[in-house]
Amino acid sequence: MHMPVPDSAIIARKARLVERLHKVLPQDAVIDDLVETRAYECDALTAYRCPPMVAVLPSTTQEVSDVLRLCHEEGVPVVPRGSGTSLAGGALPTADCVILGVARMNEVLETDYDNRFVRVQTGRTNLSVTGAVESDGFFYAPDPSSQLACAIAGNIAMNSGGAHCLKYGVTTNNLMGVTLVQMDGTVVEIGGAHLDSGGLDLLGVICGSEGQLGVVTEATLRILHKPEGARPVLMGFDSAEIAGACVADIIKAGVLPVAIEFMDRMLIEVCEDFAKADYPLCEALLIVEVEGSAPEIDAQLALIMDIARRHDPVALRESASAEESARIWAGRKAAFSAIGRVSDYMCLDGTIPVSELPYVLRRIGEMSKQYGLAVGNVFHAGDGNMHPLICYDANKPGDLEICEAFGAEVLKLCVDVGGCLTGEHGVGIEKRDLMGYQYAPADLEAQMAVKDVFDDKWLLNPAKVFPLDSSEPRRATQMAAE
Amino acid sequence: MMKLTTEAEVAECVADARGPLALRGGGTRAVGRPVVGDVLDVSGLSGVTLYEPGALTIVVQAGTPVSEIERTLAGENQRLAFEPYDLCGLLGTSGASTIGGVIATNASGPRRIQAGAARDFALGVRFVDGAGTVIKNGGRVMKNVTGYDLVKLMAGSWGTLGVLTEVSLKVLPGVEDVTTLVIPDVSAPEAVAAMSRALSSSYEVSGAAWIEGAVWLRLEGFAASVAYRAGALQKILAPFGESALMPDADWTRVRDAQPLHGAEAVWRVSVKPSNGPLVLGALPEGCDSLMDWGGGLIWIGQSGGNPAATHAALQAHVATLGGGHATLMKGPEALRAAGPVFQPEAAGVAALSAALRTRFDPRSILNPGLMAAEPVRAAG
After folding, report:
1. In A, which residues are within 8 Å of B112 by CB distance?
2. Which domain-ending residue is among A317, A336, A355?
3. Within 13 Å and on the Cβ side, how many CA atoms surround B53?
4. Quick one: pLDDT at residue A476?
5. CA B338 from centroid of its chain's CA atoms
6. Are β-strands B324-330 and B265-271 bridged in parallel, bridged antiparallel, or unpaired?
């Protein structure tokens, strides 16, 4: 993984930049000390680190606008940061950049149950959006596993998903409006408490643009009333193929569970150790959850369990209590941290057509032997969003490189079978150089043209998403202009 | 008129164009400022490329009639959950609405409030931009954040950024049962309050409309579940009056705004639902209307009177409501030509949209001026 060589001319102007930043921000919102900037050297893709030149923590949209306008004038790259939980390196700094963190902007600005939305500042965490409305029976649906920590800003940047998006959709399907600050400091309001755009759907392209089009400071989010109840069922199978066939049958039967999650033996063991959810030890475990009133849940689960029985499950168990349901989900949502306790790992995020699950899992198993690195699988089976976790030893020279090569081969496989490189984590730096495998040059050119419109100098998070050689002419123009 | 059958032909045709092109699928959707140009007919790009019921996805050529797709899906008890509307009755057009037109105009019906809009079900697109370059974006899997989401940008661009040639869609299972809870004789403000109560419940209402003075609330799913939720909903809505269940309610009446089919001018307005009654209250005498999306979508019809004045007042009023848009869906040729047919955007947003159009269609030859706030002359 390469990053562009930091621009020494920019670094040489650091003192002037810091002085100017102090004029628009409170004293404690500008961090330029070499030790303190280290806190921002990486996100959750911890294999790559680089302290930024400066970090800023604005508290208002106006301050964000002031910072961006100033950096635009100075020609300094800006890397926006939510809570720094990106698994793709979306918030990885460069040595010549300003990290713009929105963590201090975490207020709820408006709650409107009659119209079913909340408007929040985007530094607010995903779970605390639900926290603000749940006493009144409402929730915000997208639920990435990192929801305790991750910020709405990052959710919007990456178009985050979650375990329950099979029913409720991902961030883009639940985002109604944003306040966006462009790189030149211009503030625009896009969307709002109404549905759909009366002109071009700018909201749709901003969501998932990985902080490259602007900094979203406020968001209008759709909220829903909580279902009366929800209950998961655990299904164990002898092989991933059988589990995959069961998933396809459930979907074809017309039942649409809120979640269908898959874990293989390695993940079952580490998650069980972590969460004590009493998972059956088997080759392939499905967690299938349905929602509704008690009789509705009973009826749906009866249908789903009938389908499961036709696939000779080695275990089939309904959750018996709310506590047990919570443990079942705690184990699943802790999967990444649970495996992190036993090994360094790289988490992939390719998505494939559901029908290709058995083949792709078999191929990953074969590659695991070939590369000599263990792989665990945990993923959203209902929508084909895989999460192979490749284990490696960060202290063993060369192991990370082998892991990266393995990961790249898995992602290419996902594309080969009709899927994509990333289903919910984003491209960041991690999948950046594989973009040319999924997209032709003209496809990438069309996407980069959108960035040209929003950020003509290519200063916002510039070395992400697009292969460096593809974006190089644009980034070079920016430097030459200085 | 150029009738094309392949993506390559579309690309060649656009690349070689010497002047504006008026894009045409089924020819059912004469909305927007009228485009003067050679007609580029893509209805020949037709057919299902790939259908995977187990993965809930279908890939179709852009000119495929919606009716054909719905028939294919019904064979597996699946459907287009966003319930695309059909404008033939409203506009007096004939022909078969195509999926390309539906996605290009983000045409969604009553179930939009629960299931999502056309744009939410579009997983991938292939299109030809204004230079004649073939571009693909997204794919055919349900979760995909690989690069920018140009699918959303294309959905609702009315052919001004590119000519759609293929779309892949998420589909959903059909339902075992459906019923509609009807509360007759309700005023607009009361209707919105009742719909809001229903939509803020956990009973998964899949349609909430106010039509001919009655509130309609649709429930879908397994029979026992529908029955249970209908009963529960009737209980919480008792303060709004007696309600009855109508299992055979015809939701295409709401979807296609059938009560307004005779009107000379028709608008489609999206606002915050609680603002719906405000919009209705400000209309001149003699307008007919219905509300969908719990009050957030308003169809307005006018015959006689002064539609140009109504149009200007409506867009001006919506602009004061802190978000929303009013689109002229049908009207006298002169009014359509004068525009703005679509809600004028704030300066910053308009600048971004104009710049995007210039990037995707540098010669301004794709449906030029159809969406623009000011009449524009296309470059040759």
Report:
1. 195-196
2. A336
3. 18
4. 76
5. 23
6. antiparallel
Length of chain A: 482
Query: Does B151 contact A204 at a Cβ distance shorter than 8 Å?
Result: yes
Chain B 143-202, CB below 8 Å of chain A: which residues? 143-153, 155-157, 161, 172-176, 193, 196, 199-202
Q: Is the pLDDT of residue B328 over 90?
A: yes
Torsion sign, CA atoms B364, B369, B374, B377 = positive
Nearest to B238 by CA among B192, B284, B197, B288: B197
Report all structural domains of chain B as residue ranges with CATH numbers, in order of start: 2-173 (3.30.465.10), 177-254 (3.30.70.2190), 256-338 (3.30.70)
Please tell me the predicted confidence (pLDDT) of residue A331.
87
Across residues A303-310, what is the average pLDDT?
A: 96
Q: Do residues A146 and A214 both lie within one domain?
A: yes
3-state secondary structure of A425: coil
pLDDT confidence tier of residue A162, bands split at 50, 70 and 90? confident
Set of chain A residues whose Cβ sits within 8 Å of the Cβ of B193: 114
CA end-to-end distance (rounded Å), chain A: 27
Q: How many CB contacts within 8 angstroms connect chain A with chain B?
A: 266
Q: How many separate domains does chain A show?
A: 3
CATH of the domain at A183: 3.30.465.10
- Partner A, chain B 31-50, Cβ-Cβ below 8 Å: none
Residues of B with CB below 8 A from A443's CB? 135-137, 147
Strand partners, B61: B166
Same domain, A358 and A318: no
∠ CA B108-B113-B116, rounded to 5°: 60
Residue A10 domain-assigned (yes or no): no
Selecting from A158, A194, A201 the residue whose C-beta is nearest the C-beta of B270 gives: A194
Q: How many of the other CB atoms lie within 10 Å of CB of A97? A: 29
Check residue A391 and report its DSSP letter: E
Q: Which one is predicted more confidently, A188 or A254?
A: A188
- Is pLDDT of B25 > 80? yes
- How far is B62 from chain A, CA to nearest CA, in Å? 19
* Tens digits of residue pLDDT in A5-62: 999 999 999 999 999 999 999 999 999 999 999 999 999 998 899 999 999 999 999 9
- A-facing residues of B in 108-127 (CB < 8 A) are 108, 112-113, 116-117, 119-120
Among residues 90-109 of chain B, which lie with CB inside 8 Å of chain A? 106, 108
Closest chain B CA to residue A430: B146
**CA A444 vs CA A47, A467, B124: distances in Å:** 27, 9, 15
pLDDT tens-digit series, residues B124-181: 999 999 999 999 999 999 999 999 999 999 999 999 999 999 999 999 999 999 999 9
Question: What are the start-end ranges of the H helices in B17-159?
Answer: 66-74, 88-91, 99-104, 112-115, 118-121, 150-154
Domain that holds residue A255: 229-336
CA distances from A120 to A177, A179, A389, B251 (A): 11, 10, 33, 35
Say whether A444 and B147 touch across the interface (CB within 8 A): yes
ipTM for this prediction: 0.97
> Angle A357-371/A399-416 helices, nearest 10 degrees?
160
**For the whole model, what pTM was predicted?**
0.96
- Cα–Cα distance, A400 to A388 (Å, whole number): 15
Mutate to test the interface with B, among A171, A200, A413 (most CBs of B within 10 A): A200
Mean pLDDT to the nearest integer, A185-213: 98
